Amino acid sequence: MESNKLQGNSSPEMLAMDSNAFYQSPENNDEIDLAELWHAIWSDKKLIIAISFICAISSTIYAVNQPNIYRASTLLAPASKQAGTGGLAKVAGQFGGLASLAGINLGSGGTDKTGLALEVLKSRLFIEKFINKYQLLVPLMAAKNWDIHTDTLILDEELYNARAKAWVRDVKAPKMPEPSRWEAFKTFKELFSVSSDKESGMITLSIQHYSPEIAKQWLIWLVAEINNTMREQDKSEAQRSVDFLSEKLQETQLADMQTVFYQLIEEQTKTIMLAEVSEEYVLKTIDPANAPDEKAKPNRALIVLLGTMLGCILSVLIVLVRYFANNDNSSKNNVSEQNLSK
């Protein structure tokens, strides 16, 4: 009876308000109709195709205009150990205690020349001297392409005036029109790479550049320079050791100490002789650098593919934003109309 009374008392307006409240509940509004979304995307398929096509064309033009970059590499192996190393270690084992009484440290005799050479090769001081010695600043900092037909490097006229042989780049202080040594070092480090195989001990040096011939030549110079640097360093140290030991030899009257000094001088003399005759003193070339025929980058097909995918995703997002914005405006209009009707 009471239920019948309640049903009789409920007016059509109240029932309509209840049904609207049900359909406009938060749970139902948060639900996304995938079929409706697909219909919205499909209805704007022309816009999606147009944006994707524009992005595909733009990425194709960008990829075609990118210059080829070639990577030259050379394979190196550690050269044989210095002739004086084993003998010096033997002397240190026999007369180390006696020499220490005279204030002389013979050391262990073992030095990782290859590891030291690689660290020197990557150091700022070595690279700066290398760039300055071979005048690499212009091809390093001003190059923008390479003409394969004439085998000439194309320079950026906004950075360097080839006729006047002057830097004309527009930069803010404290930078100068001519790149600094630090800028050249950072740029060279981006193009140059060193990798070593721990199992075989082989070392690979690589350089990327617009010109394959330049990349090859730089690698040849690098190997020669690091060998020369390490050779001159060892020669200088060995010569200083010989001079020092010769002075000590004149000062002592002990026969045992004289024996130590003579053997040390002999080992250091061997080091100097080995440095004089060894052209590849620390790093020995296994596979010399060669100008590559194939580019290392860019991957133009990948650039076009990624550009087209980006355009497709962007166009779909635009369509969905428009769809939700229109739905939001229509729902607000419906609510305002209902309020006015009340």
Structure in words:
This protein is an alpha+beta fold. Helices cover 63% and strands 11% of the residues. The chain contains 13 helices and eight strands. Helix 7 packs across helix 11. The relative contact order is 0.16. The N terminus is likely disordered.
Taking the sheet with the most strands, its summary is: 4 strands, antiparallel
Computed Rg: 38 Å
Number of strands: 8
CATH class of the largest domain: Alpha Beta
Quaternary structure classification: single chain
How many domains make up the 3D coordinates?
Answer: 2
Residues in helix, %: 55-70%
Give me the number of helical elements: 13
CATH topology (level 3) name of the largest domain: Bacterial polysaccharide co-polymerase-like
What structural category do the secondary elements indicate? alpha+beta
Described by the principal axes of the CA atoms, the overall outline is elongated
Cα-to-Cα separation, first versus last residue: 32 Å
- Estimate the mean pLDDT confidence: 81
Residue runs with pLDDT of under 50 for 5 or more positions: 1-10, 12-30, 82-87
Q: Percent of residues in beta strands?
A: 5-15%
Q: Major sheet: order of its strands?
A: 6-7-1-8
How do you describe this structure in short?
With 342 residues, the chain is an alpha+beta fold. The protein has helices spanning 2-9, 12-23, 26-30, 34-43, 45-65, 83-101, 113-121, 124-133, 137-141, 181-191, 212-251, 255-277, 300-341; strands at 70-78, 143-147, 152-155, 160-161, 166-167, 192-196, 203-209, 283-287.
